[in-house]
Amino acid sequence: MNTSARSQYLSYLDSSAGYDTYNQFKKYLYGENDFLVQKIYDDVLAPVLSKGHRGVFRMCDIGGGDGKRMVSLLQKAHTNFPKIRFEVLFVEPSKYAFSQAKKSFLQVAEFAQFQGQNCIFENADLRNGQYDFVLFIHSIFTFSNQTNIAKMCNLKRKSGLVLVVSNSEKTFMSKLNQRMHKPFVEKRYETPTFLEDLVKAKVFYKAKEKPNIFFVAKNDFHVFAETVLTWSSMRRYFDFNIQQKIALHDFVLSLSLLSDESGHWFEETEVFITF
Predict the structure, then answer these.
(1) Helix/strand/coil (H, E, C) string of the chain?
(2) What is the mean pLDDT of residues 112-140?
């Protein structure tokens, strides 16, 4: 087995099966309207755009997947700030997701210029920098170490903002990942380590938790558990025997906040880190 969680994730995401699972997982945790997109726009991007920006607003999206979230952000921004034009540098390591992103950005071509790089963040050519808004949604886990922090800081212009969105260590996915990633020698680069490295690098940051409660109907729990376990294990779930799978389903259920005859409530809290 691959001993690196980072490498395993990058490999799994570079397939249509991996991305299909990821999209199913997102719908369960964040809903059809995507809780994260709404919170990023309302709490971070809209206030930045409201400062009276003129001309072209330059954005950089690192690990943006299939581009759907960035496209949704751009559509909301254009609706409320129609005079602003946007330039987006989009960096995504998955070949499959990158091909989907290029299609997604056609929806906003009238007011947003797209430039893409199909590679990991460490290999991206970002020498031009000077972005107004830099976005990392669930992408720091693919970092190899803290040396990327200086590169992150150099992306923004003096008045710009970097937003890192990551899982809180206290809630659903973090607890699930802790269980599923035990076999890996090299673990994911997680939020607590990232915050420690920001301090070491003397980067002043703000971190705010954004709680999200989601519901899974009782008759949908089996499919939900299979989806999140497949995603967290990066498909290794299918190699487990029936007793192991039953134990894992019980573990997922134990992470619920509340259960009744209708179903189960879970909490997936995100951390918004800005600097």
Answers:
(1) CCCEHHHHHHHHHCCHHHHHHHHHHHHHHHCCCCHHHHHHHHHHHHHHHCCCCCCEEEEEEECCCCCHHHHHHHHHHHHHCCCCEEEEEEECCCHHHHHHHHHHHHHHCCCEEEEEECCCHHHCCCCCCCEEEEEEECCHHHCCCCCHHHHHHCCEEEEEEEEEEEECCCCHHHHHHHHHCCCCCECCCCHHHHHHHHHHCCCCCEEEEECCEEEEEHHHHHHHHHHHHHHHHCCHHHHCCHHHHHHHHHHHHHCCCEECCCEEEEECCEEEEEC
(2) 91
pLDDT, one tens digit per residue, over 131-153 is 999 999 998 877 766 668 888 98
**What letter represents residue 256's amino acid?**
S
pTM above 0.85, yes or no: yes
d(CA 124, CA 152): 11
Q: Assign residue 52 a region (left: φ > 0; alpha: ψ between -120 and 50; beta: otherwise).
A: left
